[in-house]
Structure formats: C-alpha cells, structure tokens
Specification:
This protein is α/β, with parallel strands linked by helices and 218 residues long. It contains seven helices and eight strands. It has a single domain, classed as Uracil-DNA glycosylase-like domain (Uracil-DNA Glycosylase, subunit E, 3-Layer(aba) Sandwich).
Length: 218
C-alpha cells in the first residue's frame, strides 16, 4: 500500500501538554493558514519500515500538516526515499504534491510543534503513548529508523528496552528479541548537514543498508 492510513492519535485540540497546547493557540494567530495541530503520520500501516523523527517544524510540518514537509530536513529525507524506491511521485513541499510512500511510514516522537523545536522530557514521555499505539498497529513492521537521539530514546522506551541494550550511534543497528531491527541516524536537519555532522553520503548509507536488509531496493 502507498496510501496514508489514519490511526487514532491526539485530537486537533489535544490538551495533554499544556505548553504545546498554548503554543498551538499562538500559532493559529500568527500562522493562520497553517495546519497548527498534532501532525498525523504519513504512509500506510502495513509498511515494514517506520521512520521516526523528533517533532514537527514550526514552518514545516506544523504548517503543512505532513511530517518533514516544507523544511530542509524534508528536502533531504524525501530525496533519499525517492532514490531508494521508498517513495514515488514528486516532492513539492506541500500535501498537494504527488508524493506517495512505498513500504515505509513516517511519524514523529512528539506530534505537536514545540517552542524552539525543543520538547521537554515530560512532553516526550506524554506523547509516547501514541508511538506505542502506532507500532502496535503495524502488523508487518520489521524496522524502525530513528532520526536523532530523542527519537531513538523514545523508541527504545516504547519498545520496553533499557538504554544500555541499544545505545544511540549513527549507523548503529540493533536486533531486538521481537524480530524487529532498530536503526539509527543523525537527524537530517540543516544544522547537522551544514556543520558536517551528517553528510548526504552518510544518510544514504543508512538507507542503503535498510533497503538491502528489507529487500526493498529494486
């Protein structure tokens, strides 16, 4: 399947995190044409790969309503997905483009945009319930790719692991007892690429390994 499947998650006016709720209300005034709500995941639930980011960007996913859409991180991520046949169509930085995901689904550890792109520990913990529901609802899930340490830590805790059992490192692969593999990459943010922490080659190498091991690549 390549279509987006809706999974029950936080509602439009989710009040679990008061700070994020207040920030959403502010954004609805300052960015009136934006989505300004918890951003739903993108991709089919029967995908074997879940890509997990940190949180929506203020003028990216928070504005467009689709993960990694409308900011630099999405430019790199979707170009890479297209290269490895994990997406089809054209990425146009908005939800009306022709982009469709193939064998993967994209979610965020925190579903609402946080001030300064920095969710608190409590907000990450609170939103973890939705990640748990998502993983449980993916019957063919074989791999989770975590983009950055926060996504990694949230996935590890959601899966009931201890931090020392699966330490974060770019390019790391952790084989889990439930037949799932956890892959790590530095986040594809503009800061990481501008500073050389993450190069296109490094990012593509992670996806090349995932595609090969899942036998997705054509």
């Amino acid at each position: 399947m390549t279509s987006n499947t809706i999974l029950a998650g936080p509602d439009q006016d989710c009040g679990f995190c008061p700070r994020l709720q207040h920030f959403r209300a502010e954004n609805r005034l300052t960015l009136p044409d934006g989505f300004n709500a918890p951003v739903p995941s993108f991709g089919a639930l029967d995908a074997p790969l879940l890509i997990l980011g940190l949180a929506p960007g203020l003028k990216g996913a928070n504005f467009t309503g689709r993960p990694f859409t409308g900011d630099y991180a999405g430019d790199l991520l979707y170009a890479t997905l297209l290269k490895f046949d994990l997406a089809r169509g054209v990425y146009g930085e908005n939800i009306h483009d022709s982009l469709q995901l193939n064998n993967c689904r994209i979610a965020n550890a925190v579903r609402c945009v946080p001030p300064q792109n920095k969710p608190t520990v409590q907000e990450i913990t609170t939103c973890r319930r939705f990640l748990g529901d998502e993983i449980a609802a993916m019957p063919k899930l074989r791999a989770v790719l975590c983009l950055g340490r926060i996504a990694h830590d949230s996935a590890v805790k959601t899966l009931g692991l201890r931090a020392r059992e699966a330490p974060f490192a770019h390019g790391a692969v952790h084989a889990l007892a439930m037949g799932l593999k956890l892959y790590d990459s530095y986040h594809c943010s503009r800061y990481n690429t501008n500073t050389g922490v993450l190069t296109v080659q490094m990012f593509e190498a992670v996806f090349a390994r995932i595609a090969e091991e899942l036998r997705i690549a054509g």
